Amino acid sequence: MGTERILSMAREGELGRKLAAACFRHFLEKKGGLDDFRKDIEQLSSRPLGPIAQNFLSAAAEAGSVEEIKRRARLFEKGLEESNLRLRERGAEELRKHRRSLIIGSSRTLKEIVEGAGHEQVFVTALLPEGKGIELARRIDRATVIPDRSIGFFVPSVDAVVLRGFCVSPEGVLCPAGSRSAASVAKCEGKPVYVAAEFARRGDSPVVTESRWELPVRSRAPLFEMVEASLIHRIITERGAVTLEEYINEARESIMRWLK
Q1: Do 239 and 186 lie in a common domain?
Q2: Which domain holds residue 21?
Q3: Which pLDDT belongs to residue 212?
Q4: First vs last Cα of the chain: how many Å apart?
Q5: Which of 80, 107, 111, 221 has its CA 20 to 30 A from that of 36?
Q6: Nearest 5°: phi and psi at 153?
Q7: pLDDT recorded at residue 69
Q8: pLDDT at residue 211, as a whole number
Q9: Is 171 in the same domain as 245?
Q10: Which of 50, 82, 114 is the last residue of a domain?
Q11: CA-to-CA distance for 151 and 58, rounded, in angstroms?
Q12: Of 82, 114, 129, which residue constitutes the final position of a domain?
């Protein structure tokens, strides 16, 4: 796994755990001296990667030896896996108070949360043009796929809106395109908006990438958008549901615990 492949994944819109895992693997398998490692860290750190990868690279840059860089890669890899498992458990516990939800995202994490919560009805947006939401709905019991444009029709009939967060900053959370529309309608309808995001996703907002949409006319299809803080009820983390302010305050400490 070379640096070019990692950068390619970022350009293709991968900002989450897969890209972070690629960074871990790269440094665990890399050979060479400390200068070689630091050159790769510097190159990758200067690019708009996802927050998990950036948090790891910041920790790796502080290491004084190749062995310490590899040790931190192993700890980050283990910490990320454990935090995601706990996030799914805490999310299911938090959402059991609701029976019907609408979710936007395509991750297995959202699937595990709503299934663990035992929701009797789950609406999943299609996430066109890729249709990733359709693939997610196939793996969820009692799921119904809805067109992206019909969010306003379905939100009033659910108890909560659940989003997947990719980057959490004091201003808000970067989520899949369509999330802001859902959150805005939910706010008007008095429905809570939850965002699932591990503490390792604390960071500055990365460049929002767009997917290819082959049409005979000019077209654009952003993959992500910012959902501002005022629209978010709670962020579901590995330590339970917290406010955005609490998330920001606890994130750094939580990440540093991985390195001990």
Answers
A1: yes
A2: 3-82
A3: 64
A4: 27
A5: 80
A6: -75, -40
A7: 95
A8: 62
A9: yes
A10: 82
A11: 38
A12: 82
* Three-state SS at 118: coil
pLDDT of residue 46: 84
Residue with tokens 């490692």, as numbered in its chain:
37
CA angle at residue 248 from 231 to 113, to 5 degrees?
60
Q: What pLDDT score was predicted for residue 209?
A: 65
Which pLDDT does position 259 carry in this prediction?
Answer: 76
Same domain, 71 and 97: no
From CA 177, how far away is CA 191, in angstroms rounded?
19
Residues 162, 194 contacting (CB under 8 angstroms): yes
Distance CA(35)–CA(54), nearest Å, equals: 19
Count of residues in the chain: 260
Q: Which amino acid is at 206?
A: P
| Alpha-carbon span 196 to 232, nearest angstrom | 11
**Which residue ranges of the chain lie beneath pLDDT 70?**
1, 205-216, 219, 221, 260
Indicate the number of domains in the chain: 2
